[in-house]
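Re: weekly structure request thread

Next one in the queue (278 aa):
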Amino acid sequence: MSYEKQTWNKYDDLKTEEENIENGAVVTDNRMNHIEDGIGDNNTNLASHLVNTNNPHKVTAAQVGLDKVDNVKQASKAEFDSHTSDASNPHKVTASQVGSYSKSESDDKLATQKQAMDSHVNNKANPHAVTASQVGAYSKQEIDTKLSKAVMADDSGKVSIGTLDSNTLTVQGTKIYPNTKDGVWTVEKLFDNEYRLTTVMSTGADVTSTWNSLFISSEIPHPNLPSGYTKTSWGVTLSNSNNLMWCSISGASVFRLIAGASTSAATRTVIVTVYASK
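Done, posted below.
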């Protein structure tokens, strides 16, 4: 079997590894196996040829000058066989001769690759452009938005007076706070664990039930406190009505409207003040 010679080209650093492999500039297992197969075939052919003592080339003594010398064997078959089986590179074949890198060249290339890898590992400038969402984090804008909301409200969405201090208007030493919204608690920290919570609420209850010489409404509950607060005391004040009436606590969280005359239903505003701990 004849050996099909491979083409070897110089490695091109500007090309990818795959392109250099395709261009015959890289020692691959396929190319080395091809060489090994060729060597094996040659060894087989050579061994067969060596043991052929029938003068396969029909060489004559005259052709080799043996007509002028004694017909004496110059080397024994054992010596040829020994050379054929010598795997210690008796011909001193070099790496470049078989299209491979020398040990020094390989070490240099590995050192260059290690340097590039170390540089990448130590790159703290997000070389892969990883985003916050990819690692389950908030973006800067999302954090800024959440912090902005946190400045204006607690976990239940209620505005704290202690938080609003930087945004209030002071008139002759008195702080003017934003208007309280219906059903929304304004929280003010008085001492270490004492808070005053205030809200306004609208009620449309009629005041038609008789109570001695007065008239009262049905019981009206105040809005639930924000989570975590424990009521210690509270009070309620009527702040907007077209009729002469007032209000009074009638239970732990309820109150009634009271009037001197029977009064039909109408929208009225009540201020609820609660003192609490947390």
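Helices lie at 17-22, 29-50, 77-84, 103-121, 140-152, 161-164. DSSP finds six helices and eleven strands in the chain.
Next request, please.
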